[in-house]
Structure formats: C-alpha cells, structure tokens
Amino acid sequence: MKPSALFGLLALALLAVGATARSAETPTLKDAYKDKFYIGAAINRTIATDAAVPAENVNRTPEQVAKDIALVKQQFNQIAPENDLKWALIHPREGADGYDFGPADAFVNFGVSNHMYIVGHTLVWHGQTPRWVFQGTNLPPSLTNAASAAPAATDAAATNAPGGGRFGRGFAGGLGFTGPRASREELLERLRDHIHTVVGRYKGRIKVWDVVNEAVAEGGTNLLRNSPWLQIIGPDFIAKAFQYAHEADPDAILRYNDYGLENPAKRRKLITLIKSLQEQHVPVMAIGSQTHVNVSSPSFDAEDQALTELETLGLPIHITELDVNSAQGGQRNTGADIANNTTTTQDGLVQDADRRLADAYSGLFRAFVKHDKSVKVVTFWGVNDAVSWRARGRPLLFDGNDQPKPAFEAVLRVASGEPPNPR
User: Fold this and answer.
1) Which residues, 6+ apart, have CB-to-CB distance to 117 below 8 Å?
2) How far is CA 171 from the centre of its chain?
3) Which class does domain 33-416 fall in?
4) Does 311 participate in catalysis according to the annotation?
5) Number of other residues whose CB lies within 10 A of the CB of residue 352
6) Span 248-275, average pLDDT
7) 249-283 in b/e burial notation, b at 16+ Cβ within 10 A?
8) Please, are residues 288 and 210 in contact by the beta-carbon 8 Å criterion?
9) Each residue's pLDDT tens digit, 188-227
C-alpha cells in the first residue's frame, strides 16, 4: 500500500473515532431534560409504520425513513401523531364499521415498543372532521337568511375558513357546514360513541389525550369559535367531550389544546374558558399550548409571562406543537392553519436564520425550564425540517438530513445551565 493511501485510511479512522467521541459526549434531548419534562415529537405515518408510504405530504425514501426513525428513538421519549388519530383518518365513515385503526395501531405500537410516553391527538376539532359527523335531517336555523348569519365569521381569523384544517381541506371544519344537520342528541351520541371507541381501544397505552382542540375564538369578543360543534350542540360540547373521555379511560390525562396563547387576548379567553369548566367540575387535567411561533417572537419575557398566567389555572402545562418559523413571511403569525401556510413560509428565510433560530429556541427553553414545576411535556411538531408542515420555514432542531442545527446546541446549553454562545 502506498504511504499516501495508508495516511488517508488513518485519517478517515481518526475522523470516525473523533465523531464517535463527540457523539458520546453530546447528550440527547431526552437525557438532557430527563429531570425536567418529557421531550417529544409528532411523528408521521412513515415513521410509525417504518415504510415510505405516501402520508401527510411527506416524500421520504426508505433510507431517509430509517434515519428519521433512528433520530426519534435516539432523541425523544414521547410521541404524538400528526394525523392518524384525527377523526377524518381514524373514523372516516359512519357507523361501527367505519373505523380505520391500522395506522393508529401502528403509532401506538411504535410508542409502546420503544417505551415512550404516548399522547393522542385529537378527539374534537373543527378541522379534519368528516361531513357525515354533522349531517342529519334538520334544516339549520336561518337557512333562508344565510346572509344575515355571515357576520358571525368576521370575529375569527382565517383559521375559521370553511374546511380549514392543519393538514388538508375538504372536511366539515370551520363555518362551511350549511346542509341538513344532526340534532343535538344525534351529534352527542356520535361524539360519545367515537370517544368511547377510540379512547377505550388505547386505554392504558395512550397516557394523554387532546380532548378538545382550538375551540377558543380567534379575535373579536366571542369566547368560542363558531364551529358546527357549537352550532349544533351548544357550548357544553366541550364539557361533554371531557366527560366521555374520562368515562373511557379514568386514568388518562385529559387536556385542552390551543394555539396563539402567547397573545394576551387569546390567553385571557383561554383562562376564562378553563376556569368556567373547572367551576363545573369538568375533568380538564392539563393545558396544551401549541407554541407555533417564529424567530421574532415571543421573547423570553413574553413566554415567561404567558406561562406565569397559565399557571394561575393550577394545571400542568404541556407545550404540544412546538416549532419556530424562520421564513420571512411568517414573522407576525402564530396561527395554526395550513391554509395560511403559503403566506407564512414565503419569501425565503430571514437573514442569519440559523443564529436567530438558535436564539429563539434558547429563549423558549429558558422559559420552559424556569417553569419546570408546571411544564411537564414539550413536543416538537415534527422530527426534522423536511417533514415539518412548515418545511420552508426550517422550524425545527434537525435539518432534512436529520443533522443537528445550531438550535439543537442552544437547547442543550439551556439544559446544562450554560449561557448562550457569545456572538
């Protein structure tokens, strides 16, 4: 062997040893925060099933899927499903034979086999709910005066758009359901049967449920979003959903989940709602703050204030859908609707995006750690940038090749108590 070739092999060997040593010295997220809170990720169907199947706008090769799975197992001790427990996916057709449990079973089995803390998302939502759920024989009120009902939508943002949903349109979400509808009693029966069936199936394995998702109105003075749930059942649809979930699994932690709680007005509405439910002895057991934010806001002080106010409810706080948008188009948006995704991820990344992302995550995790007596779960909404619903905003700690970004190091420095990297 030529000396130059031998030198090259030795150099490669030394690089490999160095990489292994660095890897061994670098803690994982779950180990770094093991004494504070669970660190998790929302996973898609490709990860849960270990197959490069078309799902949730994810286009990954088998090799990439294998790397994604390895990253989840290495870094996280908690998982939530991006889609497969939502009504439209698990119960697309009416009746007892209308369930599709396969993907959800795979998700739960993945969590159990890897000894992870499993969260179920979500039982009641205005998005991704099939039309049959709300259909019936009763004409909606004021059907002949639809124009006069239109202003009801004006105190809500685009998240209330007909058919709006985090991952797709065409369902009965938002305010677009105007056909013959179920009676209150019929819809309550469907709600009870769905919750008892789904929660009951995974009793003891899914430890936490998002029982009601995004019911608080965005903007305006109304407390609740004008969804078909509210229109048909009335405001007690929330209490009923929690009641049914508690019946199905008395040991599960039941949480209310919403976005935009960094906004003081939205947060006040949330606190008003939860206090009302507590006065009625509704079994709300945790608050889910989605925390879809951006590199411009919230600051550490703003997040600290948000968590301080949420703590007044006396409930555990879960950070449920964490990501930090680095796209220029999303710097004034903390919404959670995919219908706005083009706008919020357009115009390329902000200048010095990696540094700003690291700074933003550092501030958030400093706040989470400060409130670690209340914050019990932190879940990233996705595993890496490539599979994120806001992929163009590069919002997560790992790039599309599952490699750590500077934000990953920033989050680890918070856990160790080190100051942020000097600039």
Assistant:
1) 38, 40, 77, 78, 79, 111, 207, 208, 377
2) 19
3) alpha beta
4) no
5) 12
6) 98
7) beebbbbbbbbbbbbeebbebbbebbeebeeeebb
8) yes
9) 999 999 999 999 999 999 999 999 999 999 989 999 999 9
350: which residues sit within 8 A by CB, 6+ positions away? 295, 296, 326, 327, 328, 331, 356
Region 255-264 average pLDDT: 97
pLDDT grade for 230, boundaries at 50, 70 and 90:
very high
Predicted confidence at residue 333, as pLDDT, reads: 65
Residue 71, CA distances (Å) to 65, 104, 376, 390 in order: 10, 21, 22, 19
Residue 279 annotated as catalytic:
no
Find the mean pLDDT for residues 169-183. Answer: 64
Please, which pLDDT band fits residue 166 given cuts at 50, 70 and 90?
A: very low
Place of tokens 């990696």: 354
Predicted TM-score of the model (pTM):
0.87
Write a three-state SS string for the chain.
CCHHHHHHHHHHHHHHHHHHHHHHHCCCHHHHCCCCCEEEEEECHHHHHCCCCCECCECCCHHHHHHHHHHHHHHCCEEEECCCCCHHHHCCCCCCCCCCCHHHHHHHHHHHHCCCEEEEEEEEECCCCCHHHCEEEECCCCHHHHHHHHHHHHHCCHHHCCCCCCCCCCCCCCCCCCCCECCHHHHHHHHHHHHHHHHHHCCCCEEEEEEEECCECCCCCCCECCCHHHHHCCCCHHHHHHHHHHHHCCCCEEEEEECCCCCHHHHHHHHHHHHHHHHCCCCCCEEEECCEEECCECCHHHHHHHHHHHHHHCCCEEEEEEEEECEHHHCCCCCCCHHHHHHHCCCCECCCHHHHHHHHHHHHHHHHHHCCCCEEEEEECCCCHHHCCCHHHCCCCECCCCCECHHHHHHHHHHHCCCCCCC
Tell me which of 82, 186, 303, 321 is the catalytic residue.
321
Catalytic residue among 82, 214, 262, 303: 214
pLDDT band (50, 70, 90) for residue 340: low
Structure-token match 């985090």, residue found: 166
**Domain limits of the chain?**
33-416
